[in-house]
Structures are given as C-alpha cells and as structure tokens.
Amino acid sequence: MRWLKVRRLRKQLRSKGYGDFWKRQSAAIQLGRLRDRGSVNLLIAALAPDMGRWIPEAAQALGEIGDPRAVDALLSLLEERLPTKMQAAAVEALAHIGDKRCVEALVNV
Questions:
Q1: Within a 10 A sphere around the Cβ of 57, how many other Cβ atoms?
Q2: Residues 6+ apart with CB under 8 A from 56
Q3: How far apart are CA 86 and CA 73, in angstroms?
Q4: Could you read off the pLDDT of 13-58 as tens digits, one per residue?
Q5: 8 Cβ contact partners less than 8 Å away, ≥ 6 residues apart
Q6: Cα separation of 77 and 55, whole Å?
Q7: What is the largest CA-CA distance in the chain?
Q8: Of the segments 18-22, 76-80, 104-108, which one has the largest average pLDDT value?
Q9: Three-state SS across the chain?
Q10: Percentage of residues in the chain having pLDDT higher than 70
Q11: If pLDDT is split at 50, 70 and 90, which confidence band does 109 have?
Q12: For the residues 72-101, what does the mean pLDDT come to?
C-alpha cells in the first residue's frame, strides 16, 4: 500500500496545471515524511528557481530524506539571492543531511 501512496504523491509532484501548487507542496511534504529516496530527483527538480514558492517544502523534504545526492542542489540555493525563508530551508536541510561538503557553506551563511 505504501508504494501506491508514493506513486500518487510522485504524480502530484510532477503536476503542472493551474492550481496544482498546493498539491505539489503537499506531495513534497509527505514524500519527505515517508523518507522516499526514489523521489529525490523529483524534489531536486522542484528546487529550480521557476518553481518559486514551494522551494522550502522541497528542501525540507530532501533534508528529511537525508540523501547526499541533494547536497549540490541545496548548496546552490545558498548562492542565489532568494528570500530568507527559502535559504533557511536549504540550511536546515543541509544540516539534516550532514555531508562534509556542507560545513564550509553553513559556516559562511
């Protein structure tokens, strides 16, 4: 049954229709809680600047999953001029992942 839920959430995460923002946001949060490593690439794609307002939820989910594949994408968020909420989410996610590459970036924040 878990795989059915994960499959549905991944589909929601990929939806791009008008009004799907809340579905994508909710899917990111739930996939993080489920710690679904199979969703890491989808969540990394959600960090793209054109995804906008739901970057914090995608970053939070990546932190909860704890997969080191997300480190580079999260570090790149710290280099961009993003709102504080978005950068704070990236910092928190990097702290949860605990990869050595994060230390210098986190010290410089």
A1: 21
A2: 85, 86, 88, 89
A3: 13
A4: 887 766 677 888 899 999 999 999 999 999 999 888 776 667 889 9
A5: none
A6: 9
A7: 43
A8: 76-80
A9: CHHHHHHHHHHHHHCCCCCCHHHHHHHHHHHHHHCCHHHHHHHHHCCCHHHHHHHHHHHHHHHHHCCHHHHHHHHHHHHCCCCHHHHHHHHHHHHHHCCCCHHHHHHCC
A10: 91
A11: low
A12: 87
Angle made by CA atoms 20, 21, 27, in degrees to the nearest 5: 90
Please tell me whether the overall predicted TM-score, pTM, comes out greater than 0.70 for this model: yes
Dig out the tokens for 81 from the structure.
């001029």
Nearest 5°: the CA angle 83, 63, 28 is 75
Distance CA 24, CA 30 (A): 10
